[in-house]
Amino acid sequence: MINVEKIVENLIHWASTKGIKLVIGIIILIVGWKLVKKLLKIMNAVLEKREVDRTLASFLDAVLNISLKILLCIVVMEYVGIATAGLAALLASAGLAVGLALQGSLSNFGGGVIILLIRPFNVGDFIEGDGKSGVVERIGIFYTHLLTPDNKEIMIPNGTLANTTVTNYTSKDLRRVDLTFAAAYEEDVLKVKKVIENVINAENFILKDPEPFISISEHGDNAVGFVVKVWCKTENYWTVYYNLLEKVKIRFDEENISIPYPQMDVHIKDK
């Protein structure tokens, strides 16, 4: 026969001991959850005010959100009386198994952290890395997304980018345009230099300081090479590059300056 009085007595004892702890633990969990959200909101506001990169801010928000909530749950479980030693061992074992299975992904995650902290490039920069080049469209946790000039998306693992040479073409305000033009040996060197100089002076995107440089670069097999080095703003690099190629050729034609073709003299001897 069921002893009702014993059951009621046990319930009253549980409610007065562990039950109160459980209620308090739930209250702590609810309040702590709200405090975590409030803390993250304050942190995001501070990061936004200091104009921290959105990718880094999003990454920090996600990491802190998960970490603080896990810590809160562990604290509540300890307070209520739930043993967390076994749970910690289980989580450690599971973490080891997952880590072994996802070594590449963890390497990419670590590479993403390094990129976000060191900032070798930012969203919008034109970079070259791992033999690929393009504009950085997004820095993800595992992959960096590049957009090529012909509108193709390239995803490079962050682990690779963090451990290879990366060239950032747009991190500086100014860039130098280097070009080489050829003229026949019969042409007047001073005249050729003057024609190139006039083209440079007429180009609005080329800066006067640093001063443009024009000089003979080589005595080639078929022509004399003239090296041209001019400075411009980074965003005008390709405009200056193609304008010089086109306008120098037009001016050479107008001034009857010949650009010789590669040629070879062949001598045939009779037996």
Automatic annotation (TrEMBL):
Residues 177-259 form the Mechanosensitive ion channel MscS C-terminal domain. It comes from the Bacteria. Its main location: membrane. InterPro entries: LSM_dom_sf (IPR010920), MS_channel_C (IPR049278), MSC_TM_helix (IPR008910), MscS_archaea/bacteria_type (IPR045275), MscS_beta-dom_sf (IPR023408), MscS_channel_2nd (IPR006685), MscS_channel_C_sf (IPR011066), MscS_channel_TM-2 (IPR011014). Residues 105-170 form the Mechanosensitive ion channel MscS domain. Keywords: Cell membrane, Membrane, Transmembrane, Transmembrane helix. Belongs to the MscS (TC 1.A.23) family. This is Mechanosensitive ion channel family protein.
